[in-house]
Specification:
- There is one protein chain.
- With 221 residues, the chain is mainly β.
- The protein folds into two domains: 187 residues, Porin, CATH 2.40.160; 30 residues, no CATH class.
- Helices cover 10% and strands 64% of the residues.
- The protein is built from two helices and ten strands.
- A ten-stranded antiparallel beta sheet has the order 1-2-3-4-5-6-7-8-9-10, with no helix packed on it.
- The protein is globular.
């Protein structure tokens, strides 16, 4: 089981919260193929209830003794559109390929296609006024490229590039993002259970050793 929460904030409109408790299932179909499914209901603070679904299929294989992982995924949920207020129903298809040309270098590329749908209402004719509803849709196409290189065991350099192209009636919007960063990490292990089994709290052993050393000094004096 899992839980997904989103917050949608737009100028001039009230903030919308969505919560989606989900149930998932993962199965390794073959030693190289894995299927994952996740579904549930998505509840919004505006009173609406929608469906949430997430499905992915991954496949691993080797090329010149290098492991390559390919995956495809589909997600149906609530999303947002750049330049439009409020959440919209979103259907996203994505694919990616990740591989390691060398032991320290990891490269991945991917594509996404998203369709956003939102209901709108309009009225009017000169003779009579009548309310009609329609569905406005926006389509976004995207491509990504990522690379990471492990410089040391505790230092990794990362860079990524993403491009998206949003088609809509109000005008198309291209978007480019380039990111460069460093990840610093240092693993350590702290076993609290071993101390609790001995009746000690963290740092109590250090205090007891210091106390004993002081007693020995006073006795020698």
């Amino acid at each position: 089981m899992d839980h997904a929460q989103n917050v949608f904030e737009s100028p001039g409109t009230s903030t919308t919260y969505t919560n989606a408790p989900t149930v998932g299932w993962t199965r390794q179909l073959t030693p190289l193929v894995t299927l994952s499914l996740q579904a549930g209901l998505q509840f919004s603070t505006d009173g609406s209830v929608g469906a949430y679904a997430n499905a992915s299929l991954s496949y691993e294989y080797k090329v010149a003794d290098r492991l390559v992982r390919a995956s495809v995924a589909y997600v149906h949920s609530e999303g947002f559109v750049v330049g439009q207020a409020g959440p919209t129903t979103t259907d996203t298809f994505s694919s990616s390929i990740a591989f390691s040309p060398s032991r320290s270098l990891l490269v991945s590329v991917g594509t996404t296609t998203s369709r956003f749908s939102a209901g709108t209402s309009s009225s009017s004719t000169s003779a009579a006024s009548s309310a009609t509803s329609s569905i406005s849709s926006t389509t976004t196409y995207g491509a990504t490229a990522n690379a990471s290189y492990q410089i040391f065991s505790w230092l990794t350099a990362r860079t990524s590039y993403s491009f998206s192209y949003q088609e809509q009636s109000a005008g198309n919007i291209p978007h480019n993002v380039v990111l460069v960063g460093l990840d610093i990490s240092y693993p350590f292990r702290f076993d609290r259970r071993s101390l609790s089994r001995q009746g000690l709290q963290p740092f109590s052993r250090v205090r007891s050793v210091v106390r004993r050393s002081r007693m020995r000094r006073s006795a020698s004096l």
